[in-house]
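Supplementary Note 3. Input sequence used for the single-chain structure prediction.
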Amino acid sequence: MKKLIKYKDWILAIFILSIFFFYSDKKIVLILKETMFYYKEFEVFKEIFSKIVETFHKIFLFLLIVFSLYLYFFKNKKLGKSLILSMIIAGIFSQIKFLIGRARPKITYDALSFVGPNLTYNYASFPSGHVFFLFFISKILSSEYPKGKGFFYGLAILVALQRVLVFAHFPSDVIGGAFLGYKLGEFLHKKLFKA
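The predicted structure, written as discrete structure tokens, is reproduced below.
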């Protein structure tokens, strides 16, 4: 029983992902497709929203790299080094999607379409790498800079919504990416930043 309580987050995540895999993923994507077909204004909103979020995401990542290098060379070498190392580790881990090989919604509405390990963009849907990395870095940055917590997680949530709206991912892809990124951030924060 104690082991189950210890792993309650993982059990809950698997349960939620299962519901999305088998019930909601396909329905949500089809509803979005229909909405965009019948309401052209929604398509315009999607394009504008997507460009804005994409721009903020790129600016954030650029500033994060500059900030990490600034910390390493001028302010706090240990914190800068931990931040740079953790970003490299997260970047590598976020590529597990190529081992899983789930088809993107742009390819098929079948949420259970897996081809296995490959290096094709179209079959690298689960988990969302963008969302994985942003929730990972949000956990670390909000632990180090608690006042920015709303901004960090807000941006991560906006990117998650954008990835679903542009049919790059099923909803379960972004939920899985968020959960795994957060958990890796929690783990690495204890190992790299608190050591």
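The radius of gyration is 18 Å. The CA atoms of residues 136 and 183 lie 7 Å apart.
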